[in-house]
Amino acid sequence: MTPKGRREGLSSAFRPSIDPSSAAPLPRQLYLSLRNAIAEGRLPAGQRLPSTRLASVEWKISRGVITEAYEILIAEGFAVARHGSGTYVASSIPDDAARIDRPGAEGAYPVRRGVSDAATAILTRGPSLEPQTALPFVTGRIAHDERTARLLNRIAVRHMNYAFEGYGDIQGEKALRAAISAHLAVSRGVRCTAEQVFITAGTQQALDLAFRVLMTPGDMAVVEDPCYPPARQCLALNGINVVGLPVDRDGIDMEKLTAGAIRPPKAFYVTPSNQYPVGSVLSLPRRLGLLAYAKENSCWIVEDDYDSEFRYQGHPIASLHGLDKADRVLYTGTFSKALLPSLRIGYLVVPTDLVTAFRAVRPAVDRCPPTFQQRVIADFLEEGYFPAHLRRLRERLRLSRDLLASLLTQRMAEHLEVLLPDQGINLTVRSTGTWRDDTAVSSAALERGVVVMPLSRMNVISTDTSRLLLGFSALSEQEADIGTRLLAEVFSRTASFETLQPG
């Protein structure tokens, strides 16, 4: 029998909506169910909620879960606790208290909510960087190296004590910055000190930080055409106007700039050592020309050297930063391709006179980089393991590149011209003339379980739709064999290649 004066008749008849298969925690599900019942009036203001003991019996839910859900309701003002009496629906629930529907439920947001113009452009333009299924030729996969994995695990154990951790240095751990400075001096000719290095969450944060410090909304940036999409999106989100210059076998073509057809930009964004996505290398004369133009016109150059470690023929061409005598180049790199993307460790090298500005802006974007990962990588570099790891990885990637190029040529020479890269983890193929719609090829290939990326989605002003990008990092022999057979079927099953359509 319910004690006199306790109004729990309606609430005791209430049954919450709980989905055992949902990934949402049970307290959260129960809270949402109770809140919706309150918002809809099924649990009216002033109504006493069942005691945790009674609710546990009736709802078949543990008392701990019920207690936690009640505490959330009380904290958010939907319920009140009365000492010695119980928990009651609050008496002052607004009439328009919002019902919370399950994510994705129909009608959850009947009115479209506005987002920024830059966000809208990114939504409609793409491509997305959502995690992709590990299908043949997906870009960005990382080859696993068992020896390196053991070393990283052993080093990580040294740094697992968080008892005395606090916020780290704004720029990152000094030991890692010093190790990166030493590595870049030997491998890329980059002349810098540890004080010029900022540790970032991969290349993307380095680019965002550089654009924020160097540029004002409304400024103009010159990029390569086609261009690495996340860099272009980052510029858009910072309010920067983008102008594309075409890329040929010698890299970005600056003829329009030098001829005065385009006014000098505030900054350039370039990938000179392995142009993404085409794969061309900026020639030495053009490197020197770009540096001279930037000096003469007070332009900044953001050099993205994202996979400089993976060169398969000849010696690497000197970085722009290594050739720069006017301190106009900011240099960024990452350990995502060479070690693990999940470590989220990249770096940005800035001119000495800009360090103060970057230190001032960095905390507004990210207080400091995570120290644990930094210390692990610092030890890995300082103890000399990185060069041997790169040699093993480079050889494995070279074999994957050669295998993929060979199979593509054997099975699809009629339709594809393979552009063999001297560096990197992706290769580009170009139409021989039998097809001209790279987006349609990509869609048809995906239906067959193969990922090939259309370069036209990365165009700035170019109308070229005749090229595709294929990744070969972490590509096994079996995947290469199966993937090229499936891709060959895509072409062989299509009657007309003039405007190739999926299916």
From TrEMBL:
CDD domains, per database record: AAT_like, WHTH_GntR
SMART domains reported in the protein's UniProt record: HTH_GNTR
Organism, as annotated: Rhizobium puerariae
Sequence similarity: In the C-terminal section; belongs to the class-I pyridoxal-phosphate-dependent aminotransferase family.
Protein's name in the database: PLP-dependent aminotransferase family protein
GO-annotated molecular function: transaminase activity
Region feature Disordered, mapped onto this chain: 1-21
UniProt KW keywords: Aminotransferase, DNA-binding, Pyridoxal phosphate, Transcription, Transcription regulation, Transferase
Domain HTH gntR-type: 24-92
InterPro entries: Aminotransferase_I/II_large, HTH_trans_reg/aminotransferase, PyrdxlP-dep_Trfase, PyrdxlP-dep_Trfase_major, Tscrpt_reg_HTH_GntR, WH-like_DNA-bd_sf, WH_DNA-bd_sf
Pfam families reported in the protein's UniProt record: Aminotran_1_2 (PF00155), GntR (PF00392)
SUPFAM superfamilies assigned to the protein according to its UniProt record, in alphabetical order: PLP-dependent transferases, Winged helix' DNA-binding domain
